Every structure is written in C-alpha cells, then in structure tokens.
C-alpha cells in the first residue's frame, strides 16, 4: 500500500491546479468582451467594404433598361475618326463615322484608342464583342471617363444596321444609392458578430466549466 500511495499524485498540487483553472476560466470570460470592443469597428468596416462591389453591380443591373426613344441620342456607339476609335456623344466625336461592322480581332485596338482619349494606361474593356452568331454581332460599349459617372450601352450589328438594346447611365450621385445598402451590410455583420461573441461568453459560463472547477477543488 505504501508503494501504491507513493506513485499517486500528491494532493499538494491541487492549489496550483486550482489557480490554473481560475486563470483559464477568467481568460475565456474576458476574451469575448475584449474582442467585441476591439474588433467591432473592424467587422463593421470589413462588411461595408466587402459589400461595395456586389451592391454596386446590383444597383447597376437594376438601372439597366431597354433603350427608350428619348435616350437614342445619348446611346454610346463606336465611331471612327482620323483612324482612331471614339465614342459618340462626346465633343471630339463630331464628324466621326459610326462603325457598323466589327469583330473580336478589333477589340485590342479599340480599347487602346479609347484609353488614350483620357490618358489612361489600362486594360479596361470599354468595348467588348459579346457574341458573334448567324451574322449578328452583339457588343457592349462604355464611354471612357475618369469621373464617377457612367454611360454604357448594349447593341447589335447586322449587315450594316445597328439595333439598340439596353443602356445604363448615372452621375456621381449614384454612390448615394450604394452607400445605404453597404452600411446596412456593415450593421448586419456587426449584429452577427455580437451574437457569436455573446454565445461564446455564455459557453464560458456553462455548467460543464463550473463542474470542472468543482472537481479541481475537491
């Protein structure tokens, strides 16, 4: 019996184990509150930022509509002047010839010319050939700009004829349609974070942890 008792853990270690248990439990209780205070602004701003692109795209799609008769004069069309591709509706497009036939092989030069208009060195696809089928070429064209405004149209080319399809345009005020939804996304992310933090705090006070403390004390 004396040999068996010598191999058993001494009860003198219990106070140190008790201190470790208390410190661990206190850390679990304090950490969610600390994270909620420090990370709340990060969660809010992160949710707002992550939602900007999808919300912006959603609002653009919502504003995109079939071309009305009153909008034909602002519909962006690809034109050619002095060997350079430009977009109708701009002052420099006066006297230009509207392009009625184009292919995918022309895309690179077209976009390069459009970027040169605003002094932009970019691979942005202002002009795209979307589909070529049965002699009909479907294209999209966005008027080059460095500002917050946008003018983009979709149309088709067939045997020298142009069929207008859809258009979307807006000015700097478009941001006011996006920001409220992005802020709402930030608030939603913050609420979800608060719920998760609250549940973690409740788990730290669970009966299992309390019973764990009691077993050490005994």
Describe this structure in words.
With 218 residues, this protein is α+β, with helices and mostly antiparallel strands. It has helices spanning 2-7, 14-63, 107-117, 175-204, 207-217; strands at 65-66, 78-81, 84-87, 97-98, 127-133, 136-142, 150-158, 161-170. The strands form two sheets. A five-stranded antiparallel β-sheet has the order 1-8-7-6-5. Strands 3-2-4 form a three-stranded antiparallel β-sheet. Helix 2 (14-63) packs antiparallel against helix 5 (207-217). The longest helix is centred in the N-terminal third of the chain and has 50 residues, at 14-63. The protein is elongated, with a radius of gyration of 32 Å. The two termini are 23 Å apart. Mean pLDDT is 78; it is low at 1-11, 16-25 and 214-218.
Task: State the distance separating the first and last CA atoms.
Answer: 23 Å
How many helices does DSSP assign? Answer: 5
Mean pLDDT: 78
- Strands of the biggest beta sheet: in what spatial order? 1-8-7-6-5
How many strand units? 8
Task: Report the helical percentage.
Answer: 40-55%
Shape designation: elongated
Over all CA atoms, what is the radius of gyration? 32 Å
Order of helices and strands: HHEEEEHEEEEHH
The helix/strand class is alpha+beta
Strand content: 15-25%
Low-confidence stretches: 1-11, 16-25, 214-218
Major sheet details: 5 strands, antiparallel
């Amino acid at each position: 019996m004396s040999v068996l008792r010598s191999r058993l853990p001494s009860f003198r270690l219990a106070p140190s184990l008790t201190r470790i248990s208390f410190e661990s439990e206190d850390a679990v209780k304090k950490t969610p509150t600390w994270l909620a205070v420090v990370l709340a602004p990060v969660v809010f701003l992160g949710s707002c930022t992550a939602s900007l692109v999808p919300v912006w795209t959603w609002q653009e799609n919502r504003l995109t509509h079939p071309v009305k008769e009153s909008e034909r004069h602002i519909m962006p069309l690809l034109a050619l002047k002095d060997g350079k591709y430009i977009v109708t509706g701009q002052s420099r497009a006066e006297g230009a010839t509207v392009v009625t036939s184009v292919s995918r092989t022309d895309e690179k030069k077209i976009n390069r010319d459009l970027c040169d208009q605003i002094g932009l060195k970019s691979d942005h696809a202002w002009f795209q050939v979307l589909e070529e089928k049965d002699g009909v070429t479907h294209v999209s064209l966005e008027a080059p700009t460095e500002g917050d405004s946008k003018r983009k149209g979709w149309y088709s080319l067939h045997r020298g004829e142009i069929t207008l399809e859809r258009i979307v345009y807006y000015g700097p005020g478009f941001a006011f349609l996006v920001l409220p939804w992005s802020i709402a996304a930030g608030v939603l992310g913050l609420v979800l974070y608060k719920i998760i933090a609250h549940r973690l705090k409740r788990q730290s006070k669970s009966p299992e942890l309390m019973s764990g403390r009691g077993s050490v004390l005994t």
